[in-house]
Specification:
about 260 residues, 9 helices, globular
Length: about 260
């Protein structure tokens, strides 16, 4: 974006606000689809597609899915019949795991809320495992998506994250557990459990300034009319409550798991 700001205005008269708008449009209102094979060397297997009208359809899990035909047409395909006057909805990124942080960044809302006290479905951990590692660890982690390290809704890391942490914390290559070993079933995972507990405590510490009860009371007040909140504030409070609840769940789950690993 900085390069575009510096050079494109000189060539085409673009302005930084216009480029910011264009970037925001692409990042929040585009679907990734395969394209012509000739574009693969330049863009990779997929690229963002802006599809008129499609971005006007709201999200609901399990609803219609946007597809691309062999002819290059786009269709919104529903698995069940829709009656006259029914609201047309679509499932954004069906089959893909998206954490609250991704939903907020890409679509500016958090889906699947049952109550204001629902934990987040998952949470990015933002790990940085590539600094100060021995050569064999760096090699094993080279092709792994460290930036996608995730804490799942059950309070435990997903399998890929657990394996990356096993590699980062192992003393020797032969100490790394196999991919097929379920996380938490071997004493060798105790170091990972300890690290995750510390991370959860640290992240909770940054959220402790305001209690969950306080935030939930404000959100409930916005529903019954006793508190006035803007849409952005409701989203921010909801996001903070859900992540804090997941971290609390994770900390309790990891503590219980750690107690079972001293054998």
């Amino acid at each position: 974006m900085q390069e575009s700001y510096e050079w494109y205005p000189k060539l085409f008269g673009y302005t930084k606000p216009a480029l910011d708008w264009a970037y925001g449009t692409i990042s929040t209102r585009a679907w990734d689809f395969e394209h012509a094979s000739g574009l693969v060397p330049l863009l990779g297997e997929t690229s963002p597609h802006l599809i008129p009208l499609a971005d006007m359809v709201n999200h609901e899990a399990g609803a219609a899915v946007l597809t691309k035909t062999l002819k290059g047409d786009f269709k919104l395909v529903a698995e069940r019949a829709l009656g006259r006057g029914a609201v047309v909805l679509q499932s954004y990124d069906p089959g893909r795991v998206r954490c609250d942080a991704h939903w907020v960044a890409d679509y500016a809302f958090v889906p699947n809320r049952t109550t204001f006290r629902s934990p987040a479905s998952c949470m990015p951990l933002g790990l940085n495992l590539n600094e100060g590692l021995s050569a064999w660890k760096a090699d094993l982690l080279a092709d792994r998506p460290v930036h996608r390290a995730t804490l799942m809704g059950n309070g435990l890391p997903d399998a890929a994250t657990a394996q990356m942490l096993r590699i980062a914390l192992a003393q020797l290559p032969e100490d790394v557990l196999g991919e097929g070993v379920e996380f938490g079933t071997s004493p060798e995972d105790l170091a990972v459990v300890t690290l995750l507990k510390r991370a959860a405590v640290s992240m909770l510490g940054r959220l402790e300034a305001v209690s969950v009860d306080h935030d939930v009371a404000r959100l409930e007040g916005s529903v019954n009319g006793t508190v006035t909140l803007g849409a952005a504030e409701v989203l921010a409070l909801t996001y903070r409550v859900r992540e804090k609840l997941l971290l609390e769940l994770s900390l309790e789950t990891l503590k219980r798991l750690g107690k079972t690993m001293y054998f």
